[in-house]
């Protein structure tokens, strides 16, 4: 049976004046897949992601996300996806419970749904004793888990995670990836950017951008075989050297 394409990108391009940040990239992402979108700073991956989540218009090319055209249906795209940025998107001056309620409202949930989801989320995250504490009082790892859960409140088909584990310790990173696996198992597509090459090993497939172009795209196992190396970090280094 053919896998369902949840993201379809065809010759997507973004230019800023004379500079082309994303150069005619083409790829598909499948339902329930953990798709790693990698690249060094300045490679164009953040610019590409901004187009896919509907906050930046493509200069040319096409992208369909959850059945919606990012160029003509950007507002619908934003409502249909989950998004977690590197800064976790939470409001430090609101309590945990208030943050969940706020995001539930943004995603268009009813009051009843928000109440039910809030109770469910606080229980799942084992935050019953701190639910009325300000988010600013939480350790970084807890903020990260809460932010990921908030991005899933409206049960989106796709969640975009932009450098979600930056600055957290290895144990918390591993726990976070367990949450990602659980969500992917339920059928949610995870589109994740990361600069931790060991995390690329956790993805079903990995795309590597270099200077605005996708230079490699395959499973971590196949990429290591293709470049005849033992780790994804070595794949990345070899690619960077080849382009230079």
From TrEMBL:
Gene3D superfamilies: P-loop containing nucleotide triphosphate hydrolases. SUPFAM superfamilies: P-loop containing nucleoside triphosphate hydrolases. GO terms for molecular function: ATP binding. InterPro entries: AAA+_ATPase, ABC_transporter-like_ATP-bd, P-loop_NTPase. Keywords: ATP-binding, Nucleotide-binding. It holds the Pfam family ABC_tran. The keyword Repeat does not apply. The keyword Hydrolase does not apply. Residues 7-236 form the ABC transporter domain. PANTHER family: ABC TRANSPORTER G FAMILY MEMBER 20 ISOFORM X1, ATP-BINDING CASSETTE, SUB-FAMILY H, MEMBER 1. This is ABC transporter ATP-binding protein. The lineage of its organism: Bacteria, Pseudomonadati, Bacteroidota, Flavobacteriia, Flavobacteriales.
């Amino acid at each position: 049976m053919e896998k369902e394409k949840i993201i379809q990108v065809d010759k997507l391009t973004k230019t800023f004046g004379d500079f082309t940040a994303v150069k005619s990239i083409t790829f598909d992402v499948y339902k329930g897949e953990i798709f790693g979108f990698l690249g060094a700073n300045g490679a164009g991956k953040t610019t590409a992601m901004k187009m896919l989540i509907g906050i930046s218009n493509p200069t040319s090319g096409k992208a369909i996300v959850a059945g919606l055209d990012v160029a003509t249906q950007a507002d619908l795209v934003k409502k249909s996806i989950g998004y977690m940025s590197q800064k976790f998107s939470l409001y430090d001056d609101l309590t945990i419970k208030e943050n969940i309620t706020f995001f539930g409202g943004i995603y268009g949930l009813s009051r009843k749904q928000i109440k039910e989801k809030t109770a469910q989320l606080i229980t799942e995250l084992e935050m019953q004793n701190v639910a009325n504490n300000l988010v600013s009082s939480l350790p970084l790892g807890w903020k990260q888990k809460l932010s990921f859960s908030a991005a899933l409140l409206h049960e989106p088909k796709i969640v975009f995670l932009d450098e979600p584990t930056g600055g957290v310790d290895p144990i918390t990173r591993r726990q976070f990836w367990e949450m990602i696996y659980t969500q992917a198992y339920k059928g949610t597509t995870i589109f994740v950017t990361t600069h931790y090459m060991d995390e690329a090993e956790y993805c079903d497939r990995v795309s590597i951008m270099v200077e605005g172009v996708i230079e490699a795209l395959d499973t971590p196992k196949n990429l290591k075989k293709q470049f005849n190396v033992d780790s994804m970090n070595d794949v990345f280094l070899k690619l960077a050297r080849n382009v230079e």
